[in-house]
Amino acid sequence: MLSNLKLAPKFTLFLSIVFIIGIIISGVTLSQLTQRRAEADVAYKSRILMQMTDSIRNYTSSQVSPLLTPKLETEKEFLPQTIPTYSAREVFEAIRQKPEYKNYLYKDAVLNPSNPRDLANEFETELVEEFRNESNLEEIDDFITIEGEKLFYSARPIIIKDQSCLRCHSTPEAAPKSLIKTYGSENGFNWQLNEILGVQIIYVPSQEVFKIAHQLSGFAIVIFIAIFAIVILLINFLLKRTVIQPIRPMARLAQKISSDELSADKTTEPDLENLGKVAGNSDELGQLARIFQQMADAIYARNQNFTQQLEELSIKSEEMNIRSSAKTSKVAYFKALQKKAKAIRDRLTEATDIKSS
Prior knowledge:
Largest sheet: 4 strands, antiparallel
Order of helices and strands: HHEHEEHHEHHH
Number of domains: 2
């Protein structure tokens, strides 16, 4: 089947096959790369958000808590605004009102919190233990499936570094009465300075990550397809312009030579004129065209010599025919004279015989 195709369709078919294989390979590769890029992008946003929440926590500890702490002893209800975790969570909830962050979930997961809302689940507890076992580990980014939903998470350890935090979380006796009244005296105590108590964790639904990855890979594949299509068109154009068009007059000329159909006058042979244009090139096709020109010139010279020899032979043949005709006429004339002479001799012999008798 391929042997029946011309050169341009063969190149187009070959390039199309390469194109399809390239699309498949690049699609798989780009999918993996964009997946990693999307994960890195989400992790980067999560890291920025965590740094923001850290700043809010520090601001609450250094600026807000000192102002509100005296009221903890006089107010009947505990003021959660004094807790850095509360401030960080409330600000994050405000950020979630923006469309690009609406699927992000933030949690300060603690092993022994005052507020049950912050209690670490089984998975988050494992993360805390992992951070405790690996002191050099600063961050974990990965996927987790919770209740059938795949989530991407980014987690960092929560370490108590501010002595003021222990005022509410050292012992129930030292804690403000309003805190005990609100949360009780069972949980959220016996914290130690520089201890890893929990993890800051941000959850993002996996479809959010995959959505970003698909957008990136789709955009890259569209660009790749466009570039490859342009390359195929350019290669086909250059192939026709620099290879197929110069070869066509050579092929037609070779066909005419093989079938002895060359024009009698080479000045009227159009393929020779086209061949002359190609022969002016310095590339391999130009060299081949010059060889064809030399071959055609040799054939025309041979035909011309052959024609001239035929003409000379024709002239000589005519001369020989004339001479032969003249010679034949003379022989016939002499034969006629011989017959006449013999007839005369016969008549004389008969006359002599009659007289003698």
